[in-house]
Specification:
Blueprint: E1 18-19, E2 25-28, H1 33-41, E3 45-47, E4 58-61, E5 71-73, H2 79-90, E6 92-93, E7 111-113, H3 124-129, E8 133-135, E9 142-143, H4 147-158
Parallel strand pairs: 1-6, 2-3, 2-4, 4-5
Antiparallel strand pairs: 7-8, 8-9
The chain binds zinc ion (ZN).
Zinc ion (ZN) binds near residues 103, 105, 106, 138 and 141.
Length: about 160
Amino acid sequence: MQVPLMSPKRETELPGEKTHDPDEGFDLDGMLGSLAKWLRILGFDARFPCKKVAQDRYFVTTNRKLKNPQVIKVRNASPIEQLKQILDQTGIVPNSNLFLSRCLSCNVPVREIAKHRIKGRVPDSVFSRNSIFHECPSCGKLYWEGTHASRIKRRLEESGVLAKT
Ligand SMILES: [Zn+2]
């Protein structure tokens, strides 16, 4: 039976609900690379691949045999469905302000970079159309809220993961 995991919109915190703490940590097993990326898109600290349960962190796995209060066993489903399952089980509500606040490759928080410093590092059309850019301090990858980011955000809103803005 398919159970709706999240109401599409939550303006206020309900009892038992936690708002997204940017330091909330998830460790994911080797099967869950796509899910790790989606968690990072939402700004969560998501380490991948991980082999064992670490202190003060959730361990997300497809292994049905693991038993530990920190373990979240995800179903064999699409990464978005798995994401919804995690949020439902932990009661954590993603913060839309943390959308794309973390490097998708390195899992470290990105920082804003002055526009003049990225001239020549992005296509001219991207440079002229955007004013705010972020850079990963670890790998140097640049992030901006272009059409691709908007599409991802819309998908998260439509699936009920992020509240509509
Ligand atoms: Zn990076």
